[in-house]
Amino acid sequence: MNKFILGSITAMSLMAFADEVQGGHVNPLLHVSDAPFQAIPFDKISTDDYENAILEGIRLHNEELDKIANATDAPTFENTVAPLDRSGRLLNEAVLALGNLDAALGDTVLMNIMTKMTPIISEHSTNILLNENLWKRVKHVYENESERADLSPEARRLISETYRSFAESGADLQAPYLPPPMPLSPPHVPLSLYFRAIRQYPPPSPTDDARDSPYRL
User: Fold this and answer.
1) How many CB atoms lie within 10 A of CB 82?
2) φ/ψ (deg, to 5) at 167
3) Structure pTM?
4) Distance between CA atoms of 118 and 188, rounded to whole angstroms?
5) Distance from the CA of 205 to the CA of which of 9, 155, 192, 215 falls in 20 to 30 A?
6) What digits encode the pLDDT tens for the residues 65-84?
7) What element of type H or E holds 25?
8) Alpha-carbon distance 134 to 61, whole Å?
9) Burial (CB count <10 Å: 0-12, 13-18, 19+), residue 117
10) Residue 21: beta bridge partners?
11) DSSP letter string over 195-208?
12) What is the model's pLDDT at position 16?
């Protein structure tokens, strides 16, 4: 999972005042859990909640990223790298909840949700790493070593790792070396999900309806 799909406590707190209620059901993934250690209440989550929480998480994450990327203040660790690292908590929680449950159970319903949401999450992660304004701010912080002298070793390490993640993803490439846009939305799904379905479920016989196959993409 991309490292920038991380946390924003502020976004989670705001969601507590804007409940998403559908037919009397409140999506637990849109709120901070009151369980010990803020454990996710899987027994209260419906299958639709995962998709709704991920899409809402992407929307909120984009708002956070736009605020960082379009800031008018000179880039610093405090206003660029640190908030970038903390951003996207709601999305991160939803993705972890779905991924862990799918890995533990692996039923067809969860696998279908993963198949649908994985390319959307991948596209979101790619858009972050190829965000030109965001990259310029991260690069500025990284290249101004004198401004990093008073930071802790952990903060300097975070700056280096953030810079490396962008650079190795092609953020610093210039035309004509920029890669062409890739279609990451359905039906372009990771083959790993397809092959996992094949390993877990026997292929349909010639008499079976192929539409019922759990790995029909």
Assistant:
1) 17
2) -60, -45
3) 0.72
4) 10
5) 192
6) 999 999 999 999 999 999 99
7) strand 25-26
8) 13
9) buried
10) 26
11) HHHHHHSPPPPTTS
12) 39
